[in-house]
Prior knowledge:
The chain is mainly alpha-helical. It has helices at residues 10-41, 61-72, 76-87, and strands at residues 4-5, 8-9. It has a two-stranded antiparallel sheet. Strand 1 and strand 2 (8-9) form a beta hairpin.
Amino acid sequence: MAQTIGSVLRDRFNVLVDQSLQPVKVMTGCQFAAKDAALEIAPLRAHGGNMALDEGEGLGVEDSLRLFAEEIGLSFHTVRTYRRVAAR
């Protein structure tokens, strides 16, 4: 009797794994690139930040990350999480 994994035979499972490896590598690379970009756009600062409220130009952190997320087709929450992960 042939072994099944989920709803597919073991042989089909192996084919699906092989087909998925490259896209997962690409996806992982893309995530790292987006994480690094989000951190560069809005670097994490110590609690409370180190800029006075009237200092700095351009959009604030949230607005910058929202715009970046919109431009690359991800949710704000995903980009915000990416940024935190990249900072670690």
